[in-house]
Amino acid sequence: AAHPVSKTVAMTETYTGRFTPVEEVDLQARVSGYLESAHFTEGQKVGKGDLMFRIDPRVFDAALSRAVAMQKQAVARLGLAESNFATSEKLVKQGAVSQEEFNTRESELAQAKADILAAEANLRSANLDREFADIHAPISGVAGRFNVTVGNFISGGNANATLLTTIVPHDPIYCNFEVDERRVLQFTRLFFEGKAGGREGKQSEVEIAVSDRDEFEYKGVINFAENQLDRNTATLQIRAKVENKDEFLTPGLFARVRAPVGQPEERLLVRDAALGFDQDKRFAWLLKDGNRVERTYVKTGSLEGDMRIIIAGITAEDQIAVSGIQLLRPGVPLSPTTVPMIQGQTEGN
Q: What pTM does this model have?
């Protein structure tokens, strides 16, 4: 038998989560045309601004040349209109031309100025189309596969634009998990009791484990909580940001997320192996006077290594059986030996 140990720990809850990318871009063209070339390797990292695809630029080069020519023509017409207007302005004052002819020259000047604006807008549009023929990576990340091969016609600049590939960064990465309604209420009550921070409080850290390891190897910081519970599942979406420098973690992986519940407090801990199960309840064999044991139900918290937090049911002065518990029966006399609760320690430490 052993006495529970007292330790300052924070209660935790473990949830099932999934890693998702911080950003995800579906790379699409802004103009339509025939795909001329691809300039990246599928599944490899690309940098922001890297050339990814090129659409045959000859059509856009021709359109740009026409736009340049039209802009020059508009400039020439504006020069002529300004000269004619200046001449007619002098002559109308001398009575050499009619007011009607002066109005015509004034209108021609206004039209020429408007033509300049239209030509410059057309030139900017042609420049953009030529620029959009080269498709660059808008973010850094890992490129997906080619969804379209060279030589195919691709549609761009509309809601049904052709999907060329996707780009997903791996560092940092998000881990999303859902908290049920009961835990949300628990967190809220802790907040109103001053035992937990709210949305504006200090960011909470979480520990994360992946499916092939029992250890919680990764740490994250909660940076978002949804503003309402999902009406279908009665759960609240929570998101943690996780550093992933070596890019070991991949979007889509499942995870176990261990999140703190409230602030660290002085709590009792016992060996988890010393607790029995009775359907959905946990119990301990409590040593009573006369060296007999009695089954005592306890309210448990989270697991700390191989130690289980005890919320209620026993005190620090109690002794509970920590070995041979499968053979124990209520009322049967025993000859217990006192041992430390934490294995490897000596009694009293």
A: 0.72
